[in-house]
Amino acid sequence: MKRAHETALILAKHHRGKAPVRAHLLRECLPSMPRNRRKDLPHIAAHMIRHGRDQVDRAYRRYFRRPTNRDECELLVCHGNLIRYLVGRAVGLRQHGWLGLGTSHCGITVVRILGTGDCVLERYNDTGHLPATPGNPA
């Protein structure tokens, strides 16, 4: 979580009075893997995947909840697997659908949660805020 925390500290400079809070639920993990692909990852034990799934399910319930009767905004800074899984779940992808989503360093994803609890993916993995480089044509 070191890089994610460093990023959160940079963002906090632009949001006075908002200090980053480390959340163990947002640690990088492997939330699921189809059986036919597990043979490609022999170092990943089944219990690690079960633990990862439990972690992301708790994170989803914690952060992707119906808003109260006022507007609110939460900024989560975390790593790719977690972002891909949470977004996939928010938009209703099947269990392993998150594996088909790409991710870039410093990409911004915005999910709007309606009063009904339904999720709308407003922006996914947007890197338009980054300067143009050979790896990021912006």
What does the model show?
By secondary structure, the chain is an alpha+beta fold. It has a single domain (2-126), classed as Phosphoglycerate mutase-like (Rossmann fold). Helix content is 32%, strand content 10%. It is built from four helices and two strands. The protein has helices spanning 2-12, 35-38, 46-63, 80-90, and strands spanning 108-113, 119-126. A two-stranded antiparallel ribbon has the order 1-2. A hairpin with a 5-residue loop joins β1 and β2. It is globular, with a radius of gyration of 16 Å. 13% of the residues are buried. The mean pLDDT is 88.
Main attributes?
138 residues, alpha+beta, Rossmann fold, two-stranded antiparallel ribbon, 4 helices
